[in-house]
């Protein structure tokens, strides 16, 4: 009898399979460990609560039958209690403490000489914002000293803009440890624009649908109907984040909330964020994901639903913000040719689109386990998914006339289109009009001067929050510059009428001023906006008077006085009756993509036909930039 032939084993292939099995078991072990550590032991596989006692995460199902729904976020990590004990016990017994204490938010610890208020904020777990790495440059870490000002060293030059009992947490150093100190962060509510001024009618055709009690994602059944079909539209701005909860069954926005982007500790502009992410990869993503999850939890509590009823998220943002959310390396965006790894793969033919789709579970966002996040496509370089979303809200695909979009922000994007031809550019304007680098500059918080007028020999001001002024926000700075030029108190080059004068008083009773250095920093920020508009208009072969409709997008642009902005060259001299403010159009575009498959497919096609103009490669870029630094109108006709 012939013996069967023994098949030889491919050792290399065998090892690959063995490694794969090991990897799978390792992943299963990690997942099991996470589940045992974080997941509530009373939650069953259907996310129902089996506990026989009350819990704040319990939700009643609509049919009031069966077990309660668990709305918990699976973050019941009891190890933190032990870790806290370890930290408290690790304090050196040799620390030289005085008799005084430092208190904030009802938390207290002992006082010692040489530490800053920011050091104590860390120790007391009190959140204080900063974006300049505690160098005193960003003016964000302002705290109110409620008691014990005499325990601190006198103000230094970085704090010279503050009065009364306000200090910079990073600069205020304890000099006397025998005095009780009490401080609190300055609670400033940003004036964030959450909606677009447009209310277009969109035909309902969402990716997520429900039929016969089953929820489908793009035709695939993913869940039983729990009572709601929700989606989230998220605009990830460099400075602010806006989130809209949308009912996918009728297309209506249930609520829209906004908050400061918590990533500001990594810097106030994109380049600093990229640098920070390179040194501390993952920290910026964790910050924004935690903030999104916290907002979802608050929405759950306010509107009585569970996170498992969120089935899709549409996220927009500039190239860096979007890719950080999607766990991608963003270092290539910060160096020539300033393109994300996704755009590079698209240009190399390795991808058919620059849009992204990922499971919420992989990104750590608390939604339905089978929900997905869709990131709109990028246009090119720093012109990202947020600009694509604005084009959706503008219905750019159907525009027949010569249209220009100016989306004003830390990075300003400009798009011009006519008869199927479109150009786009990004202008790195920087934070000057958002409070950075300006002595009395600040974002649009309570206490910010948002408009300025010269009347009867003095400046009249409107203040956000109807309170005492602390500084000037972007719209107020534009008004101030325009009024100084209008009444010949400043030359186009930013020099005061009295050439020997270095500083001009704006609000005498509160010591708020504008210096020549401030004017110089504003001039450079304005010049970036000027270059983007001037070069793109000229490249298109038209003049500002040829533009049929000019759309101003973004929260900052919504509050700008258009006449004043044109007078100082911040905006191109398009006839005022052709300029339309469309507010936060990015969040509107994200909503439309969330509820309309047609809109999603349309923007995917549209972005592929947009040509990107690299401003800095323009032969006369430097000459245009220098001209843009002057506070005077842009010419109506270009040569």
Folded structure, characterized:
With 639 residues, the protein is α/β, with parallel strands linked by helices. Among the domains are: 89 residues, Beta-grasp domain (Ubiquitin-like (UB roll)), CATH 3.10.20; 188 residues, 2-Layer Sandwich (Nucleotidyltransferase, domain 5), CATH 3.30.420.480. It has 16 helices and 28 strands. A 6-stranded mixed sheet has the order 14-13-12-15-17-16, sandwiched between helices. The N and C termini lie far apart (96 Å).
Keywords:
6-stranded mixed sheet, 639 residues, Ubiquitin-like (UB roll), Nucleotidyltransferase, domain 5, alpha/beta
SSE map:
Elements: H1 11-38, E1 48-49, E2 58-59, E3 68-70, H2 79-89, E4 101-104, E5 107-110, H3 117-123, E6 142-147, E7 166-168, E8 181-185, E9 208-211, E10 214-217, E11 220-224, E12 230-236, E13 240-247, E14 253-260, H4 270-279, H5 283-303, E15 310-317, H6 319-325, H7 341-347, E16 356-359, H8 360-363, E17 372-375, H9 385-394, E18 403-407, E19 412-418, E20 421-427, E21 448-455, E22 458-463, E23 471-472, H10 474-486, E24 503-507, E25 512-515, H11 516-540, E26 549-553, H12 555-558, H13 562-567, E27 579-583, H14 585-595, H15 597-607, E28 610-612, H16 621-628
Helix pairs in contact: 9-14, 9-15, 11-16, 14-15
